[in-house]
Each structure stands twice: as C-alpha cells, then as structure tokens.
Amino acid sequence: MFERAKKVTAPLAGLVVPLLAVSACGGADEAAPADGGGLRVVASTNVWGDVVRAVGGDAVEVTSIIDDVNVDPHSYESSPAEAAEVADADLVIYNGGGYDAFMENLVANTDAPVIQAVRTAEDGAEEGEERPAPAQGGEEEHAGHEDGAEGGDHAHDGEEHGDEAGHGEEHGDEAGHGDEGGDPHAGHDHSGNEHIWYDVHAVHDVAEAVSAELGELVPDQAEAIDGRAQDLGSELEGIEERIAAVSEAHSGDEVLSFDPIPQYLLEEGGLDDLAPEEFLTALEAGNDPPASAVADVQDLIDEGEPRVVLHNPQTESGVTRQLRERAEGNGIPVVEISELVPADTDYATWMGGQVDALAEALES
C-alpha cells in the first residue's frame, strides 16, 4: 500500500528496469541504436513503457522509471541516474497533467523527442467532438496544466518548456502524426483528469504518436513499426467494442469507485459513479476521507445502491479495506482495478481483463 501524498525516493537500482545500454547518440536525422540493438526509450511508468514496447518491438530498449505498484508517481523523486538515462535517451514518453511531475525537469535536459500523453490525447480530441471530462478527486490540483496545448499531435519538450530544452526548432514541425482523415478515437477532454490510460481512445492516439516518432528515428524499420502499431490499434479497438457493449447494456447503472483512476472507463461505459467528490479528492491526496463522506459511502453500500464496487488493492487503506469488506458483506460485487500494468502481462491484456471483469460483475 502507498499513500499518494507520501514522498518516495527510489534507490539507484531496483525501480529502473536495467534495459538501457550506454552508447553515444546518433546524428540529428537518425538515432543510433543502443548497444543492445534498439533505440533507447525512457518512460515514466510501465503503462507507457509497455505501449512503446508493443509498437517498437525489437527496435527499442525500454526503461520504465516506475514499475513498482508501491511507488506513487505523483510524489516520486527521481535519481541522478534516472536523469542521466533521460538525457541520453533517443525518445522519452511520460504521462503529464501533474501525474508524473518529476519528469518535467528531466525532459528539460534532453534533446530527444518527448511525447507527453495528456497533450497527445488532447490534440486528438481537438480533431473530434469534445465531451466533458469526468469529475475526479485531483481535478482542482491538476486542472489547467495543459491549457496551453497547441494543435500538434504530440508534445515535445520545446513546446512545454520553451527554448531552454532546445526542442522547439528541431522537433516543433514534426507534428501531424494522424492529421490525415481525422481521428475516430478523439472525444474526451483530458484537462481535468490525468489518468488517461483508462481512456482507450487516448492510448490509441499515443500509440500512433509513438509509431510516428520511432518511424522517423529508424526509417528502415518504419514499416514494421507501423504494422505493430496497427496490431495494437486493433486490440484497443476490440477493447473499445467491449466497453461499448457495457454502455449498451448498462448505461445509467450506478457503481461506486474507491479510486479516481477508472473515471474515463466508467464514463465511456455509461456508468454513474456514486462516490462523493470529497471522498475521491481525499483518496487522491493520500488522505483519509472526511467522516461525513465515509458515512455517505457506508449508507450507499448498506442500501445496496451500487451495482458494483471498484477497488484498487494497490492503494488500499484502512478505510477502503473496511468499505470493501462492507460491500462484500452486502453481496455487492467488487472489481479490482490497478494503477500500473501488473507483472507478466501487457497493457491490452490488462485493460481488456478489467473491462471484462466489470462487465461480468454488472451482469451478476
């Protein structure tokens, strides 16, 4: 268990997957592969690291700075070794929106292209009809971080940090990954909720941006990279279809979430989260919710209001454990969700499994 507000400093080894090989960067037009044969890619968490790995295949060597479920990206403090890895990377990807704020200083010191997932998703949304972002506990804390996003398809550090990183001139005109024909996956406004990996539309947009960047870095492998991106896109579209089936069968059904992370999934599934805002706000900050909010949640459970409870065992506290046990005692199905991709699986399998578990619970 971790408290989201807790300061955590990682040791130099242990939280960093030892996949990076040390080698000099190539020229500006084409990156030189790492000694292990792949481009050096650094991701803030294993969610985005897995997306890069799925798209890049053998063309990449991926390091995910955070892949431990006990570490909170909101308050993580990076090490000098991780700063060096980012500085030497061929491509960097992070979430943005305040979720992994430790990356802001790191990407300011790399000349590599940088994909910021929140801005990439927002740029995709600009191409389609925007829908309101679901309310969640961190809205006040993180709202407005990405308000200055301009119309490119992904964020480079030069756009976010100004000229200090030197990315604007080199990469600022490389946008346009996906402009052709519009984006069928656009829709959500991501400015108020940074947990965008629970929006499969957004992950699809990010995967396409990754494919475009990798294709530019290693043009001789661009066709294979694009093929893997399309394969991943097909998997994600399958998950979207399963979410749409949930919406068709259960639109308006009431659920109760003990964590703000699945709000995009719940919105897309047409489900109404009964969790009080002050309840989620406190949990997002790593605090116990106010007694009044806990009492309201207890009443909802005792009255059998939610069809399903969503519980994150990775962030379980004494309060949420007691509430989970109360729900189980009242015969309410509990679906486990998680913040990071568990070991020995991949993003599509993990997210698809959570959608299937939710659908099954709603049918029970």
TrEMBL record:
<dbReference type="GO" id="GO:0030001">
    <property type="term" value="P:metal ion transport"/>
</dbReference>
<dbReference type="InterPro" id="IPR006128">
    <property type="entry name" value="Lipoprotein_PsaA-like"/>
</dbReference>
<protein>
    <submittedName>
        <fullName>Zinc/manganese transport system substrate-binding protein</fullName>
    </submittedName>
</protein>
<dbReference type="GO" id="GO:0007155">
    <property type="term" value="P:cell adhesion"/>
</dbReference>
<feature type="signal peptide">
    <location>
        <begin position="1"/>
        <end position="23"/>
    </location>
</feature>
<keyword id="KW-0813">Transport</keyword>
<feature type="compositionally biased region" description="Basic and acidic residues">
    <location>
        <begin position="139"/>
        <end position="192"/>
    </location>
</feature>
<dbReference type="InterPro" id="IPR006127">
    <property type="entry name" value="ZnuA-like"/>
</dbReference>
<keyword id="KW-0479">Metal-binding</keyword>
<dbReference type="InterPro" id="IPR050492">
    <property type="entry name" value="Bact_metal-bind_prot9"/>
</dbReference>
<feature type="region of interest" description="Disordered">
    <location>
        <begin position="121"/>
        <end position="192"/>
    </location>
</feature>
<dbReference type="GO" id="GO:0046872">
    <property type="term" value="F:metal ion binding"/>
</dbReference>
<dbReference type="Pfam" id="PF01297">
    <property type="entry name" value="ZnuA"/>
</dbReference>
<keyword id="KW-0732">Signal</keyword>
<comment type="similarity">
    <text>Belongs to the bacterial solute-binding protein 9 family.</text>
</comment>
<dbReference type="GO" id="GO:0030313">
    <property type="term" value="C:cell envelope"/>
</dbReference>
